[in-house]
Amino acid sequence: MEPRARAVLAVLLLLAAQVTMATGETRCNPGEYEVTSLRRCSKLCPAGYYVSKYIDRDHSVGECRKCESGTFRAHPSEESSCVPCSQCREADQEVVTECSPTSDRLCQCKQGNFYCDSMDCTESCFRCKRCEDSTILQPCNATRDTVCAVKIHPEAGGSACVLPTWLCILLAVIVGIAVIVVLSIAAAIITRHYRRRENPKEPGSPV
Ligand SMILES: *[C@@H]1O[C@H](CO)[C@@H](O)[C@H](O)[C@H]1NC(C)=O
């Protein structure tokens, strides 16, 4: 080929490439990516794999290799490596789901001691509240703090009812009724006793 013809061809190719880039068109199918330097398409590596060999003049077909242990790729890609899995914090986190080639390791706050219920605890979990001298209504879990029973008279000190409010009221009513019944019976017995003493000859009794 003449040098001049070669130059013209190069310019034409360059123009064609620019048109393709400008329109954003690729000739590749879904699930493929374009190897720009070769103007060819290559299949994406599936989730859990990375591209170990890109296609080039020597390798007409690219190669995929499984993510190495401790790394993952969640989606098909043309990346040449997998992503290192997250580490759960030793101090306040535990593993929910282990790392796999297609998914990252999932961590949560250590159940029973720590929790995280907002965006404020991404760096470290909050410590679970302790119910000092009231009962636990709902134990702490990874996403919710402990719920303690509310005392009816927190300022009255030792005499506070630590049970749920409705139960305290129910107990108070039952105790109240029991006291009234016992007092009524006692009153009836005492009244009868004194009446007999003051008035031994009751009408209708033998003379
Ligand atoms: C924590 O407890 C709350 C309420 O009891 C519940 O909705 C939530 O799913 C629990 N979270 C976990 C991680 O068990």
From TrEMBL:
GO cellular component terms given for this protein: cell surface; plasma membrane
Location of the protein in the cell: Membrane
Signal peptide (UniProt feature, chain positions): 1-24
PROSITE patterns linked to this entry: TNFR_NGFR_1 (PS00652), TNFR_NGFR_2 (PS50050)
Domain of life the protein comes from: Eukaryota
InterPro entries: TNFR/NGFR_Cys_rich_reg, TNFRSF10, TNFRSF26_N
CDD domains: TNFRSF26
Keyword Magnesium annotated: no
Residue ranges of the TM segments: 163-191
TNFR-Cys domain location: 66-107, 108-148
Keyword NAD belongs to the record: no
Main location: membrane
Start and stop residues of the TNFR-Cys repeats: 66-107, 108-148
SS bond partners: 67-82
GO BP annotation list: positive regulation of apoptotic process; TRAIL-activated apoptotic signaling pathway
Keyword field: Disulfide bond, Glycoprotein, Membrane, Receptor, Repeat, Signal, Transmembrane, Transmembrane helix
Pfam families listed in its UniProt record: TNFR_c6
Name of the featured protein: Tumor necrosis factor receptor superfamily member 26-like isoform X2
Gene that encodes it: LOC101331781
